[in-house]
Amino acid sequence: MYYDCRYVSPCEAIWRSLGFEIQYRSVPVERLSFHLPNEQNVYFDDFDPIDEVVRRETVKQSMFLAWFKANQVYLEARELTYDEMPMKFVWKQATREWVPRKKGFAIGRVFYVPPGCGEQFYLRCLLNVVCGPTCFEDLMKVDGVQYKSFRDACYALGLLDDDKEYIDAIDEASFWATAYALRRFFVAFLIADCLSRPEEVWDKCWTYLSDDILYRQRLMFNHPELILSEDEIKNYTLFEIEKLLRSCGKSLEDYEGMPTPNAQFLFTNRNRLVYDELRYDRVSLLEEHKKLLHSLNDEQFNVYKTVLKAIDSSEGGVFFVYGYGGTGKTFVWKTLSAAIRSKGEIVLNVASSGIASLLLPGGRTAHSRFKIPINQNEDSTCNIKQGSALAELIVKCKLIIWDEAPMVHKHCFEALDRTLRDILRFTNPMSLDFPFGGKTVVFGGDFRQILPVIPKGTRQDIVNATINSSYLWRYVRVLRLTKNVRLLHGDFSQAPEDLISFIKWIADIGDGIIGGDNDGCFDIEIPDDLLIKGYDDPIASIVQSIYPEFASNVDDPSYLEKRAILAPALDVVDAINDYMLRMNGDELRTYLSSDSPCKSDANVDFLIDLHTPEFLNGIRASGVPNHKLHLKVGTPVMLIRNIDHSMGLCNGTRMVITRLGNHVLEAKVLTGISAGEKVLIPRMTLTPSDVRLPFKFQRRQYALIVSYAMTINKSQGQSLSNVGLFLQKPVFSHGQLYVALSRVTERVGLKILIRDQDDKDTNVTKNVVYKEVFQNL
C-alpha cells in the first residue's frame, strides 16, 4: 500500500498555524552551472554532424560564459560574485543571457564538486569570492599578478592551507625583518602547531633564520675572521630556536622530524622548568621585597602575613583574595612573589586570561602552565604526567597564585585539585586528603565581573559554574581588600572626592545596589553628564566622542592605545569597526581564511562532501576570526590567541598594523611587556571550541580582530583612558555593565550612548547582577 503524502516541516507548520499566507511563499533558487575553459556542455542529436554542432552559437553561450559577458556590459554585475548574480539579474534561457532583474530576487547556488575534482573544485572556490570577472584569466588574477591555474589563484587568496604558505611567509618577511624576529616567527609556527612537516619548512628556510649567527659568534668570541661551517651555523641556529621554545615550555624534541642541536649546547641533565624558576636575582628581589613590604596597607599586610604563615607551617591552605579593581591585589602578588623567590624558592603565578597573566611577575595563563583541557567536565584532570619536568616543578613550588579566578569554570580548579593530589601522593601519602595536595594556593578576583561563559546557559547554570559553587569552596578562606590604593598613588585630573564618588557608583552597579533592591535584570538610570545625546547618526556620534580628530591621528599609536568603544553585541561592534575602517583613507586589504573539517575527525571524508567551502566560510564562532578579515595600515587589532607569552603576545594583546604582506603581517605592540616592539603575525590554524557546532572544523586565518570597538567580554582586563559604551542593545549577563564602566580610569573619559526599543535615545538601561554569587563570600 502507498500513500500520496506531503511532508510539512516544523517551520512550515508554524507558518500555517499562525495564519500567514501560504501561496507564492517559496523562495526561487537558481542553480548555477560552471565549467573549465572549453569544457561546457554541448547538446546535440545522435545524427547531427559534429562540425555543425561545434559551429553553433549556443556552444559559446553557456550560463557561466554569459556571466562573463554580463560583467562586461553591466557595471552593477561587476560588484557581484557568481552566486550573488541571481539576486540582481535574471537568466533568460531563451536568449541565453543575464538581464537586470525588475522585481523580486532569487537565491543562487553553485553546483557542488568535491575536492578530488582538482581544478574544478578550485574554480568553484574562486567563484564564491571573486566579483565581476570578464574572462577566465580575471579569475586567476590576484593583486595584479596573473596566475597559471585556479589552484595557484586560490593559494594566493589564502583559500588553501599547506606548509608552502609558511615558507613564503618567512621568505616575504626576510626582506624587512631581522633573523631574530624570523626565528621567533618560526617558533610561533611550532607553538601553534601550524606545520604539518616542520622539518621541511626548516630545510627551506634555515638560511633566513641563521642570517645573524656568524656575526653574533664573531662578536661573542671577539674574532672578526671566525669561519663556521654550514653544520655549525645550523647547530647554533637550532640552539637559539631551542632557547625560545623552552621559554614557552616547549622543546624541539616535541616536534617529530625536527633536528635538535648537539647535546653540548643543552643542559640535558637539568630540569629547565625548575631552572627557569630559580634564575631570579635573589639580591635584587630582596631589595624589591623590602620596598614592597613597606608600602603595604593594613589589609594587604594581613593577606601577606596570612599566606606566608600557611607556607611556613607547611600545612598549606586555600585562600581567596576578594577585592575590586584598584584595591591592590596585583601589588600583593608581587610582594608575595618577591618574598618567596628572594629565598631561592618557587612560586607559580598564573591567571585565567593572557592579559592578566602579563601583570604577574613570571606569569603564565593557568591553562598553559597546568595543561588544563580546553573542554572540561566534572571528571577532568590536567595533562601532567607523573615524573615529568612539570610534575617536578609543582612538587618543588611553595605557592600557587591564580588571579582572575571567577572568570573560568569550576571544573578547571577541580581538575587541578585532582592532579595535584595524584602527583603529590608519591612525596606525601597524606596529600590525597588535602585540597590541592596540601599546597598553598591563593586565588584572587572580583565576583562583580563577568562569570564563566556557558553557551545558552541559564542563570542557574552560570552561577553553578563559578568557583564558589565548587566542592573546593568549603576549604577556602576569604580575605578582603576594600581600600582603593589607586586614589592614594594615582595622578588624576579630577578631584579626589569626585573620583571616590565615581568608583563607589561603579561598585554599587556591580553589587546591584543602584536601581533599588533588585535581583537579576533591572533598569538603572545613567547620569546625564555621561550620556551622548542630540545626534542623527549614533555610530558617528560615539566615534566622534571617543576618537575626535581621527583623520589627523589615524597613524599615531599613542592616540589609539588607550581608546576603545565597547558594546555587548558582536554585530554592533562589527558595524562600528567597519565605519572606522572607512574613515581610514589607507588602502584596504582583505584576507580570506582557508576552512575545512578537522582532519582528526573520524568522519572527515563524509564531512568534506557534506559541507561546502562557502558553508564553512559563513560560520561565525567564538574564538576564531571571521572568514574575511579587512585591514589597513594603522588599524588597531587585538590578538585572540596566545602566540608567544614571553613576548607578551597573548589573547587580548592590542597592537596596531604597520605592514600588510601577502603571507605575513607586521604590527607594533601597544600594551604589555613588549609595548613599542614590532612583531610578525602568522596565519594560524584555529579550531573553535563552540559546543553548539555539531562537528569540528578548522580555520586558517590571522588570529586578529579589529579593535576600534570590542565586545564588553573581550575588554575584561583592559585599562583605558577613553571609553565609549554603545548600548544599542542592553547587557545580557552578570557583570557586563560593571566591567564596561570599570575599564575607564577617570569619569571624564567615559561616554555612554543608549538606545531604547524604539531606537530612541534614553538615559535608562539594563543591569544584570546575580546576587546569589555573593552569598558565601
UniProtKB/TrEMBL annotation:
User: Which reactions is this enzyme annotated as catalysing?
Assistant: ATP + H2O = ADP + phosphate + H(+)
| EC code | 5.6.2.3
Its main subcellular localisation, reduced to a broad class, is plastid
- Enzyme class name: isomerase
Which keywords does UniProt give here? ATP-binding, DNA damage, DNA recombination, DNA repair, Helicase, Hydrolase, Nucleotide-binding
Pfam families recorded for this chain? Answer: PIF1, Pif1_2B_dom
Whether DNA damage counts among this entry's keywords is yes
Entry-linked Gene3D superfamilies: 2.30.30.940, P-loop containing nucleotide triphosphate hydrolases
- Record keyword Hydrolase present: yes
Family classification: Belongs to the helicase family.
**What name is this protein filed under?**
ATP-dependent DNA helicase
Native species of this protein?
Answer: Cuscuta europaea
Q: What lineage does the source organism belong to?
A: Eukaryota, Viridiplantae, Streptophyta, Embryophyta, Tracheophyta
